[in-house]
Amino acid sequence: MSLSNPIINYSIPMKTFELMTLPYAPEALEPAISRETIGLHHGKHLQTYVTNLNNLLPGSGLEDLPLEDIVKRAEGGLRNNAGQVMNHEMYFGQFRAAKKNNVPDGELMEAIDETFGSFATFREQFEKAAATLFGSGWAWLSAKEDGALVITQETNAGNPVQRGLRPLLTFDVWEHAYYLDYQNRRPAHLAALWDIIDWDVVESRYIMMKK
Length: 211
What we know:
With 211 residues, the protein is mainly alpha-helical. It has two domains: 35-92, Helix Hairpins, CATH 1.10.287.990; 106-210, 3-Layer(bab) Sandwich (minor pseudopilin epsh fold), CATH 3.55.40. 45% of the residues lie in helices and 10% in strands. The two termini are 25 Å apart. The model is unreliable at 1-5 (pLDDT under 50).
């Protein structure tokens, strides 16, 4: 089954996982993310996680579970690879071609204003979480069961579902996500990502979790 829809329902079990189809051309995110980085990050790194996940599932007792439940219940290498598949699918699925003055609206913006006071404050706190995470991992915007928003740092393959949260938006701060384009300038990479976020996708994730 191809995972071409960025609004993926992770509660549906899949017998065999496949590399997701990007919902945009490899060069569509330039200059924030180059075609070369997309090729390596999506075509090589994510493909490796998908392959490893399929190789590790047989005999685990988790073969018939949806991806989210595998991420919650698995341990060791299976948990790491399942987590990286889910993380990367959400990451690649949340982008579109660059748009100036790119901010959310609707229910998501209302929740951001209520939780953080303003979008500018949220952006500052989210970038700080991503920039200060030591080593490899992810910064996430997630929602609690009551709809309140929270920013977390997750190391390595961590995903907020392991904390009982619903993940909405993520910045990948593994070096393979940005080093080809930005070298060690992680903050510059983070600042560039705001122009390419597809807020319609992120808000759809927020609305889905409230149903």
